[in-house]
Amino acid sequence: METRDGTERTYDVVLFGATGFVGELTARYLAAHAPATCRWALAGRSLDKLERLRDRLAAEHPRCADLPLVTADAADRDSMRALAESARVVATTVGPYVWYGEPLVAACAEAGTDYVDLTGEPEFVDLMYLRHDARARETGARIVHACGFDSVPHDLGVYFTVAQLPGDVPLAVDGFVRSNAFFSGGTFASALTAMGRGRHMARAARERRLHEPRLVGRRARAPLAAPRFSRETGAWALPLPTLDASVVARSAAALPQYGPDFRYRHYAAVRTLPMALGGTAAMGGLFALAQVPPARRWLMDRYEAGQGPDEERRARSWFTVRFVGEGGGRRVFTEVSGGDPGYDETAKMLAESALSLAFDDLPKTAGQLTTAVAMGDALLERLTRAGIRFRVADSR
Q1: pTM above 0.70?
Q2: Which of 7, 85, 126, 181 has its CB surrounded by the most CB atoms within 10 Å?
Q3: CB atoms < 10 A from the CB of 294, how many?
Q4: CA angle at 347 for the pair 344 and 350, rounded to the nearest 5°
Q5: pLDDT in tens, 150-182
Q6: DSSP per-residue letters across 147-203
Q7: How far apart are CA 326 and CA 160, in angstroms?
Q8: Is the preceding omega at residue 96 within 30 degrees of 0, hence cis?
């Protein structure tokens, strides 16, 4: 099949980083759910690990016995270019992205190849916008970051909430996140890396603001709010300074249905005040340790990349994101919920994002995009069919 510019490609989807913890979960999801006509491949540094993964997949899905394998190294720009040129869509789980991600983004932007990842790193997203958005717009590549729990439930959850509210009026949405899930070594490494790069992150955000086109006649904001008790959810609401709120604001800036003046606030919902105080103290301590390189390395060594919660623990994990939206005299309560957010559901979100870009009839877009802008209703419908719940809980 061809890319949008008519270039013939060997594969519809290539999964890079397939032998990592989340990579294998994503490969298992694709093995079970990719359409029979989908030409997809596994990619990574070690051919031996790729072969063993293929054997595990084929034991459950015999059609995977001949699944193509592509050796590629994130540090080798030539192999990244060859990878990008072979596929219509590349999905990557290789992080921390600020260390390992740019060569593949650059290659996809240059080749006109659609790209999806799992990053929650604001610095990386801003740097990729500054360095590669313009070229991706020229070639037609869609660069879609944060296609896992960062930030699909929040971005599409707000997109779903806005659809329940009047148009052409100021809108305000608050999101409240709850989960009981654990994280993997790779996620922990990415989080610590981001915490330890505060100055770099602030510099990249500042540069982006200088270069990003300003909205004319509209406003889209995601301010960091103060902690408070939320009567709407019956929980303490702690502001979350994560990538998610920025992603929502960028969707709001790009899509007129978010109204002339849009505001989003992003919170963690904690049931009791002691838990809220304890969680805040723990995050503060972790942030402080992340500023000291030896301490940061020590923490990373405690939980190595490639490790993560086992299947039994993931089966007990869940998430909910509750949204309260207001505008035009109407108030709506919505919810996005699912199973294990960091791994099982994240693998599902990444795989369905890649399949959506490869096969769905989507708006004509290019450059660095959010999931709501690039895929919107098509991805929402895919995830709903896949078991992630989007529902209106109440409206007034």
Answers
A1: yes
A2: 126
A3: 8
A4: 150
A5: 899 999 999 999 999 998 999 999 999 998 866
A6: -BTTBHHHHHHHHHHHTTS-SSS-EEEEEEEEE-----HHHHHHHHHHHTTHHHHHH
A7: 13
A8: yes
